[in-house]
């Protein structure tokens, strides 16, 4: 029966010792330990949260970079396109200009040729006229080489004039 | 690597300690044969699991090695104190200690104050003393001394861990890390799930103290010559009353309403259920008391019985079978030591959690 009859002395000591133990352990062991552990867990959680934030920021930055890259690429494409257009325009203008210049040169050349031709024709006419006058002079000189002939001539011319009247 | 090494050391030490009691028994054996006393296994077992006024290690009679402990008695004439060694290892009520004009004898670890002129305690048929009375015994018995040992160990361990945390921010290493893991085990596996995130902190000091107190005491109880503290009903009654006190002090309105006037059932059932529930309030801690007491005591009785077989059958050959069995049970007891500490703490937390739970009303 001793086995299952609680002894008061032991019960008394157990209660006192345990009560004191709870209080001193709570004050000097459990609270500092749990406090430190909680603090550490919080700092770990904070560190994890900030790491997550950094990761998100990284992602944002990456997205921003990609956006920037995309924009830059688009701008480059636009510039290239514009440049190509300008080039084509310049070529087209140059071609047109050249054509015009060529046309003008050709026209000028033709006019020049025409003028030269006319000049040449005029000169030729003059030449022919001179030549004809010289020939006529020579012929007249020859015709009028004697007085008789001169008389004949005057006669004839007078005859013509009279017939004309 | 370090953890592996220390595990090996722990296993070796455990085995060494588990084997030591057999050595103690071996030395006790020839003495008993010499005196030609018939070996009484019940007495031997009850002696080993019971409390005593001195801490006996080995030997018999005046040759025994016993640590004397203070005897503190509250008599009608005031407080009387003397060392247990003054009884000269006598537990049969034969050796009389005279103190402050009073005579005391130790009869089977109960100290009686003899009436004037009496030489020895005389019992009637119902085992009531006729010529003596038992004063209030507040002695530092073997169990109280063992309890102090646990307290010293706990203070040493956990003040060390607290000191570490005062100086360092990072997680501890080695033994402190083991302690911290166990503290976190109590917090995360026992307190938080049973009581809830909001209120668990208030009960952590009790739960941690009770867990480590029971576990360390259980383990110390497995050492040879150690006291059977957690296997003593007075100790478990005290522990159980702490749980009961916490439930009663912290039970909220909802809890008491569920005890005395259970909502949601027909009115005529309510008084019947109230009786059951009120009984339940007390049965829960009583179950805790008996479970811890019975498990630890049963473990000790099994080990002692297996070893007692050697002396009952008076054959050393039996040792070949009973020693390995006792060793196996001892190792099993290492597991039980933890398991009982865990169950006691777990159920205390569960009952407290029930008392402080916020019910959702439908």
Topology (SSEs and partners):
The complex is a heterodimer of chains A (165) and B (362).
Chain A (H helix, E strand, L loop, with lengths): L7 H136 L3 H18 L1
Chain B lengths: L1 H33 L6 H9 L4 E5 L6 E4 L1 E6 L2 E6 L13 E3 L2 E6 L2 E5 L17 E2 L2 E2 L4 H26 L6 H22 L4 H22 L11 H18 L2 H8 L9 H43 L6 H38 L6
Antiparallel strand pairs in B: 1-2, 3-4, 3-9, 5-6, 6-7, 7-8
Helix pairs in contact in B: 1-9, 2-8, 3-4, 3-5, 4-5, 4-9, 5-9, 6-8, 6-9, 8-9
Q: Strand tally of chain A, please?
A: 0
Question: What portion of residues of chain B is helical?
Answer: 55-70%
Q: What summary fits the major beta sheet of chain A?
A: none
Contiguous low-pLDDT stretches of chain A (5 residues minimum) are none
Oligomer: heterodimer
- The end-to-end distance of chain B, rounded to whole angstroms, is 56 Å
Give the amount of beta strand of chain B, in percent.
5-15%
Determine Rg of chain A (CA atoms, Å). Answer: 66 Å
Helix percent band of chain A: over 70%
Distance between the termini of chain A: 198 Å
Look at the structure and give the mean pLDDT of chain B: 85
């Amino acid at each position: 029966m001793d086995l299952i009859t609680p002894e008061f002395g032991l019960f008394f000591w157990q209660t006192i010792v345990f009560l004191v133990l709870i209080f001193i352990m709570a004050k000097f062991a459990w609270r500092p330990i749990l406090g430190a552990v909680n603090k550490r867990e919080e700092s770990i959680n904070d560190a994890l949260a900030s790491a997550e934030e950094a990761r998100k920021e990284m992602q944002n930055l990456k997205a921003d970079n990609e956006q920037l890259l995309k924009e830059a690429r688009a701008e480059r494409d636009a510039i290239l396109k514009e440049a190509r257009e300008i080039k084509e325009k310049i070529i087209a203008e140059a071609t047109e200009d050249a054509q015009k210049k060529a046309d003008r040169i050709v026209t000028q050349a033709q006019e020049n040729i025409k003028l030269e031709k006319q000049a040449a024709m005029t000169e030729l006419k003059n030449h022919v006229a001179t030549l004809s006058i010289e020939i006529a002079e020579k012929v007249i000189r020859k015709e009028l080489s004697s007085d008789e002939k001169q008389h004949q001539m005057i006669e004839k011319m007078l005859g013509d004039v009279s017939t004309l009247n | 690597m370090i953890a592996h090494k220390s595990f090996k050391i722990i296993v070796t030490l455990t085995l060494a300690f588990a084997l030591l009691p057999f050595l103690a028994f071996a030395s006790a054996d020839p003495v008993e044969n010499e005196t030609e006393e018939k070996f009484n296994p019940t007495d031997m077992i009850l002696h080993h699991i019971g409390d005593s006024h001195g801490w006996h290690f080995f030997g018999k009679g005046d040759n025994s090695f016993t640590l004397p402990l203070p005897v503190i008695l509250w008599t009608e004439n005031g407080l009387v104190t003397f060392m247990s060694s003054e009884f000269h290892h006598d537990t049969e009520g034969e050796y009389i200690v005279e103190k402050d004009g009073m005579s005391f004898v130790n009869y089977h670890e109960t100290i009686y104050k003899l009436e004037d002129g009496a030489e020895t305690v005389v019992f009637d048929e119902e085992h009531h003393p006729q010529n003596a009375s038992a004063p209030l015994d507040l002695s530092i018995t073997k169990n109280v001394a063992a309890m102090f040992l646990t307290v010293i160990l706990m203070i040493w361990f956990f003040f060390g861990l607290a000191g570490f945390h005062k100086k360092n921010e990072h997680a501890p290493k080695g033994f402190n890390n083991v302690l911290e893991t166990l503290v976190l085990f109590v917090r995360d596996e026992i307190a938080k799930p049973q009581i809830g995130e909001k209120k668990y902190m208030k009960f952590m000091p009790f739960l941690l103290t009770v867990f480590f107190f029971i576990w360390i005491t259980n383990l110390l109880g497995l050492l040879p010559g150690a006291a059977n503290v957690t296997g003593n009903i007075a100790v478990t009654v005290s522990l159980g009353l702490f749980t009961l006190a916490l439930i009663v002090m912290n039970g909220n309105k909802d809890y008491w309403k569920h005890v005395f006037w259970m909502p949601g059932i027909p009115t005529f059932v309510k008084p019947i259920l109230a009786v059951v529930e009120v009984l339940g309030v007390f049965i829960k801690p009583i179950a805790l008391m008996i479970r811890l007491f019975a498990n630890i005591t049963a473990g000790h009785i099994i080990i002692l019985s297996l070893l007692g077989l050697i002396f009952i059958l008076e054959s050393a050959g039996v040792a070949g079978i009973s020693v390995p069995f006792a060793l196996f049970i001892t190792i099993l007891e290492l597991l039980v030591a933890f398991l009982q500490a865990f169950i006691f703490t777990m159920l205390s937390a569960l009952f407290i959690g029930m008392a402080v739970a916020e019910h959702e009303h439908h």
